[in-house]
Amino acid sequence: MNVIETKQGLKCWVATMKQDNRSIGFVPTMGFLHEGHLSLIRQARKENDVVIVSIFVNPAQFGPGEDFERYPRDLPKDTALAESVGADVLFVPSAEEMYPAEAQVTLTAGPQADRLCGRSRPGHFDGVLKVVTKLFHLTEADRAYFGQKDAQQLAIIESLVRDFDFPVEIRRGATVREEDGLAKSSRNVYLSPEERSEAPAIHEALRLGREATLSGRDPVPVMADHIERHTSGTIDYIEFLSYPELTEPIGSGEAVLAVAVQFEKARLIDNVILNLKEKY
């Protein structure tokens, strides 16, 4: 596996692959890899000739007071894990390499960013669009892989690709969970032992919310009651929205039940995407 730290080095490698007509799969990450990331890399490995994995803790998507400085990092372990599941290139640029000068042109996320995490993290998705746009251009990927755990991010990136005719196919990866249902996340390491024992209640609340939705009941109070009774966390939001539009749901089509819970040092998000045609 090649470890590349510069944009020019990556461009040269990509040019060689393109000359050989080899398809490129791309998995963008912020590192501290877990099974969720590895499942995306495996999926990319199956569907492409070569696979690029990026590790870049993107400062543009962190707001004041957020956890940029303490975001978990372990490059040696990440390198071994990425290689073990078939990555051909690990792209690990510095912030100075990615952003050598202040941007004179910016992208702004639209109405999809006004709900869910975007409401309490202004500018976060602008930063996501900034780095993803650069990475799409640098990798020239045929397919890019994103997990459904970050459902709002996935929806916004799908809109970016559609609205600006990016020549890349976005592939969704199912949320990977611990045995007790907790969604895999790099931030799970911030949970205290007590919080870790409580955290699976978030997934259970989503299950109850899905049952309520499909039986025609309001899922929000059902989920809120369960989380408040079984965790010490504070609910940031619970929302039921159409997907991927992230507007008020209509009678049929896809919808998302999404939740964010703030613990002392970790903010956990989770969701379930459901088809409203399944209503009883």
From TrEMBL:
Keyword set, alphabetical order: ATP-binding, Cytoplasm, Ligase, Nucleotide-binding, Pantothenate biosynthesis
Active-site annotation: H37 (proton donor)
Residues annotated to bind beta-alanine: Q61
GO MF annotations in UniProt: ATP binding; pantoate-beta-alanine ligase activity
Pathway of action: Cofactor biosynthesis; (R)-pantothenate biosynthesis; (R)-pantothenate from (R)-pantoate and beta-alanine: step 1/1
Pfam families assigned: Pantoate_ligase
Location relative to the cell: Cytoplasm
Enzyme category, top tier: ligase
EC number: 6.3.2.1
GO cellular component: cytosol
Main subcellular localisation: cytoplasm
Gene Ontology biological-process annotations: pantothenate biosynthetic process
CDD domains: PanC
Further remarks about this protein from its record: The reaction proceeds by a bi uni uni bi ping pong mechanism.
Name under which the protein is recorded: Pantothenate synthetase
Organism: Planococcus lenghuensis
